[in-house]
Amino acid sequence: MLRANSKTDTSTRSPAILIRRARKSDLPLLQALYDQLHLNTYLSMRVPPAKFGFAFNKIARSRNHSILVAEIAGRIVGTCHLIIVPHLGHALKPFAVVENVVVDEKERSSGVGERLMEAATEIARGHRCYKMALTTNVARLRAHRFYERLGWKRTHFGYSLALE
């Protein structure tokens, strides 16, 4: 379990948010969360459950990957994927990339995303990462405000190159 597991926002009396690593039994719920992240395009990117499970097993075995889920009262309500990237710069310290951050639309603004990012940060620090990075769509202004509120800074221009 991660240290962020037991945090509760007592000022609003919200239920405890448990953060843990994803399990294979979570995959249908993870898929549903990913559907919310991509909305119009994600359904066209879905893969069969067996293929999704095979990919999950491969990722879950890697020390450099952490797929986290957030639970409230036993329900999975959020997820993020943290990737530790070893490289030759910065005195050989790795960096971390955060991907697929999604909180169920009914639970947004309830502290779930913040708890996920705290847990991801804790893991990255445990790997001695010198930085964490993420990208978010330029149109997602609410997400930009969320990350800025958590202390993330816009330090670089980001580009992407579609390969498909």
Radius of gyration: 16 Å
CATH superfamily: Gcn5-related N-acetyltransferase (GNAT)
The poorly predicted ranges are: 3-13
Question: What CATH architecture do you see?
Answer: 3-Layer(aba) Sandwich
CATH topology: Aminopeptidase
Order of helices and strands: EHHHEEEHEH
Whole-number count of domains: 1
What is the residue-mean pLDDT, rounded to a whole number? 86
Report on the architecture of this protein.
- This protein has helices spanning 27-38, 42-45, 49-60, 112-126, 141-149; strands at 17-21, 65-72, 75-85, 95-103, 132-134.
- It is an alpha+beta fold and 164 residues long.
- It has one domain: Gcn5-related N-acetyltransferase (GNAT) (Aminopeptidase), CATH 3.40.630.
- The chain has a 5-stranded mixed sheet with strand order 1-2-3-4-5.
- The radius of gyration is 16 Å and the shape is globular.
Write a compact overview of the structure shown:
The chain is α+β, with helices and mostly antiparallel strands. The protein has helices at residues 27-38, 42-45, 49-60, 112-126, 141-149, and strands at residues 17-21, 65-72, 75-85, 95-103, 132-134.
Topology:
Elements: E1 17-21, H1 27-38, H2 42-45, H3 49-60, E2 65-72, E3 75-85, E4 95-103, H4 112-126, E5 132-134, H5 141-149
Parallel strand pairs: 4-5
Antiparallel strand pairs: 1-2, 2-3, 3-4
Feature tags:
alpha+beta, globular, 5-stranded mixed β-sheet, 22% strand, Aminopeptidase, 164 residues, 5 strands
